[in-house]
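Escalation from tier 1.

The customer reports that the assembly of two entities below gives different structure tokens on two consecutive runs. Tier 1 could not reproduce it. I'm attaching the input and our single run for tier 2 to review.
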Amino acid sequence: MKNLLVTEMRCALCQKSYQPDQIRYTCPDCGTDGILEVLYDYGQAAPSMQPKALRQAKPGLSRYAAILPIANPSHLPPLRVGGTPLYHPQRLGHLLDCPNLYVKDDGQNPTGSFKDRASAICVASALDNGIDLITAASTGNAASSLSGLCASVGLKTIIFVPEHAPQAKVTQLLMFGATVLKVRGTYDDAFELSMQATAKFGWYNRNTGFNPFLLEGKKTAALELWEDFGYRVPEYVAVGVGDGCIIGGLWKGFKDLQRLGLIDKLPKLIGVQAEGSSVLSKAFKNGDKVVAEPDADTYADSISVGMPRAAAIALKGVRDSGGFFITVPDSKIMEAQVMLAKYSGVFGEPAGATPLAGIRRCLEEKLIDHQAEICVLVTGNGLKDISGAMKSLTVSAYSIDRDPSKLETSLKELHIV
Amino acid sequence: MKNLLVTEMRCALCQKSYQPDQIRYTCPDCGTDGILEVLYDYGQAAPSMQPKALRQAKPGLSRYAAILPIANPSHLPPLRVGGTPLYHPQRLGHLLDCPNLYVKDDGQNPTGSFKDRASAICVASALDNGIDLITAASTGNAASSLSGLCASVGLKTIIFVPEHAPQAKVTQLLMFGATVLKVRGTYDDAFELSMQATAKFGWYNRNTGFNPFLLEGKKTAALELWEDFGYRVPEYVAVGVGDGCIIGGLWKGFKDLQRLGLIDKLPKLIGVQAEGSSVLSKAFKNGDKVVAEPDADTYADSISVGMPRAAAIALKGVRDSGGFFITVPDSKIMEAQVMLAKYSGVFGEPAGATPLAGIRRCLEEKLIDHQAEICVLVTGNGLKDISGAMKSLTVSAYSIDRDPSKLETSLKELHIV
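Tier 1 run:
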């Protein structure tokens, strides 16, 4: 059972088209790389996506139901997913001499990350289809998001994680009642087992780049940006990139707006990767040839990906938008994380601050104009990774005596008074 | 400079009245216990607080500007403070046989806690008065909230913390650019130094129970609840209580609604304290005699308070509402934290889950009816204190082999398939 306006599922690689109910995951011809795009009867969907209609619609993802692959919007989880704030942080813009810089804070989603958008659609789709169990392989935001949203509606979750997954991340999963399976191996082993379980037991699978509906959840950030900007789009949207599914989702959202005749031109998408984990950035320069890098590593753990699972759509999307990829060293991500918090009050996780580091580089290298309208998408809350934040800090607390009579002297020594 | 509708500041202890600009902090006659209530010309304020007017007003705290002690609503920080979601979590209600149980998730504020409401008013008041520096003593949510909101507008913050403040909490302050002074002593020493600095250097002070405007920020949660419930109030509102300022603020908000003629009756306020930190609960039973307990301790660190700074208003407020205090052991707070996450998808910090533990006890002891309409206010995000959550968990992850051929056997052994 699906939104009746879904007309086809089209492979992002070979362009083969499938009937809406024919395939659940990737293109059979292209294998797990063949991520499917969900397409709609945009003519039928158009009226409810007009600004006038949306101004009357309730907040939340259900407002976009006409172009979501769900049959029943009441199956969306009851938590407040999406509708995240767009800020125009004057101080940050001033610091970078970039007055039209905007920040959309998706760390304000219920479980603290952008991934709630994708999980919400996954949950609704499971409920549409009478499915009571969802599985995924993840150590991070995707799994905690899935577990949290499933908890809100009573779906079971079974999460495969590598044995060395940080206890803090496993804690969130367990709090939400997920069954957590620690695989004595790597993330890739965990991923493989989750795929096996899906094949063998029919468990519904939320793996990134595999389940095509996730991209449809992620695209809602693009739809919101269009609304946030007053039913138009900025010149650039920058986001951190690991497996490519977020930037792919953004492209899909803007593309759908174009298909609906609601925007002429897509924002140029800037995919920002850490130097140590830059498979897609390299592929973008090398004719889309994706070469896995098993040793990929960055301090921005949410975008530390050696084998990007949504490569096809990410590369296609960035190219189609007229955008590009750029890389930044971890040191610059750390600087950006502190700068974002200190100059806008938005505490993002390292991956969330990565696009700001990218924009700084773009400005320095004159790849974009200082007057351009730019939106940085912060994809995760800094509270998710306090140890990451600790690494970013270059300042520390001062120690002072408890004796009130010494206070003024102490403060003078520290040049505070 | 102030909201011209502020008519007086009245001491919660001796009832003495002061002119709006006469006093900045507590009642001179009662000392630091004499918290002041800000009162307004409610007749003048009434039109803009009518449901019809509010339905047209922008989201955010500025919608309540008529009864906030600020001169210029544009001085409110640009972050999305307030407007937090109210949920009606069916599964949780079913579990507790309490179908009319609601949860308001204030952990969804920008820095992850209810305290953002108070900090927002403090920031606006500073900007109203041309103040560029705010100080506070805190290891927790109040300080990170103040630092975050100040970062968004460029105000300086100087935070006094005890030397053993957890590094994770200090990290948030430093990320937001606060100057952090670690006092070689206890929390009380830190508090004392912050008061000295205020007296000596004229720094604007955000300490709880001292600055009367903070309560006005906290009351906005009550105003929102009234709106969330369709311009009426539930029978009970339960909240965790440490120093008493949150429950005092809720009372003030509901009281203002009553003064405005918008509600007849206040919700009964249920103050839930941890057994190990229950000064106000004891005082409520003993004729409001507040006896400090320097050894107070609970795992719910945000409400671990031996010397409650807003005792007068908390006791008065709970009594006036027809409510009561109740205590729960830490073990029940831990259970409630897991229950809240698992059955509603809301991951609250321990203090945030405390009112749920209190409601469970009330239901068990038949202090409240199972059919009653109850709202639990979750005051902080669980991501703020992952180590606290780890202590709450009674389940753990399962370890399985990476070999796909062994998957089915492993899952059978674990009774998963």
